[in-house]
Amino acid sequence: MSVKLHRAFELVLMVSFVVFPVGLHAALTPEKLYQRVLPSVMTLEVESQSGEKFVGSAVLALADDVAITAWHVVANARTVWAVFADGQRMKVIGCIHQDALRDLALLKLERPRSHARATLCRELQAVAARIYVVGTPKGYAFSISDGLISQIQTVDGFREYQLSCPISPGNSGSPIFNQRGEVIGIASWTKSDAQNMSFAIPTQDFIRLNISGEPTTWEQLAATNSSAPPIKLIKIRHGQDTEHEETADGRSFAAFQKWYYDSIGKFVTVVVQEEG
């Protein structure tokens, strides 16, 4: 082999290694993806101010002791515990920051969990990309399902992923992963009158959250809610031929929350009257 040809061959090899590094950005098999991300996922055991108990999901992706979830999972919490797949159980001492409009919250764990944090992908994903969700649907902890990004929709002025993944109660706050095992969003809500039509908050909205703040305890949050001025809620639900109207005390957050969940996917008009 001539010197010139030998150098050209070396150059081709070097370029191939630079452009096509082994394993970089490679899609994982579902089995490998699940094993990689599982340590970062947690089930949230929540007891509300009224004593109701339910579960949600969350993920470690910003810090070793900070979990990301949907705000509605913990908005009326009295106590919250995080349970991991290896059986480790931690108390969630409070909320560092929340964005109720985007349905996002950062939770503070009582201690760090080392070598468990998932990788966060801040790039907006393409429509039709394969995705996975890991959470606790109907209480069945650490279940995985897959699907596609059906579309990127604008909901109430914010961009959200529309997903084809089967998502059930208990999946709220579940991380959505791309094929590389990176968190691309958080499961938020599902249309009740449609099949496999759910929505997730993209990670681009996470940058608005303040990770360095002091956590607000659940007692402090409850005190803030109870000190809010009274409001009257008038709900008019449009059916085929009838309208239904109720009034509810604005202090009863749990009652409003239940009505809100029951109404998802329906055409609803909400009128709020505050201080006359």
Write up this protein.
- With 276 residues, the protein is α+β, with helices and mostly antiparallel strands.
- Among the domains are: 122-203, Thrombin, subunit H (Beta Barrel), CATH 2.40.10.10; 228-274.
- 18% of the residues lie in helices and 41% in strands.
- It has 5 helices and 16 strands.
- It has helices at 3-19, 30-37, 71-74, 218-226, 253-263, and strands at residues 41-48, 53-63, 66-69, 77-84, 89-99, 104-109, 119-120, 130-135, 143-155, 158-163, 175-177, 182-190, 198-202, 231-238, 243-249, 268-274.
- The strands form 3 sheets. The chain has a 6-stranded antiparallel barrel.
- The radius of gyration is 22 Å and the shape is globular.
- It starts with a helix and ends with a strand.
Summarize the model shown.
The chain is α+β, with helices and mostly antiparallel strands. It has helices at residues 3-19, 30-37, 71-74, 218-226, 253-263, and strands at residues 41-48, 53-63, 66-69, 77-84, 89-99, 104-109, 119-120, 130-135, 143-155, 158-163, 175-177, 182-190, 198-202, 231-238, 243-249, 268-274.
What composes the largest sheet? 6 strands, antiparallel, barrel
Amino- and carboxy-terminal Cα gap: 91 Å
CATH homology group of the domain at 122-203? Trypsin-like serine proteases
CATH class of the domain at 122-203, named Mainly Beta
Indicate the proportion of strand residues.
35-45%
Structural class: alpha+beta
Number of helices: 5
The CATH architecture of the domain at 122-203 comes to Beta Barrel
Q: What is the averaged pLDDT score?
A: 83
User: What pattern of helices and strands is seen along the backbone?
Assistant: HHEEEHEEEEEEEEEEHEEHE
